[in-house]
Amino acid sequence: MEKLIITAAICGAEVSKEDNPNLPITAQELAEEALKAEQSGASIIHLHVRDRAGNPTQDKEIFKKAICEMKKIGVKAIIQPSTGGAAGMSWQERIQPIYLEPEMATLDCGTTNFGDEIFINDLPLMRNFALEMKKFNVLPELECFEVGHIYNALKLKKEGLLNNHLHFDLVLGVPGAMPASIKNLLFMVEQLPKDATWTAAGVGRYQLELAYPSIIMGGHVRVGFEDNIFYKKGELAISNAQLVKRVVRLAKEYKRKIANPNQAREILKIE
Question: Which of 3, 51, 25 is nearest to 226 (CA)?
Answer without folding.
Answer: 25
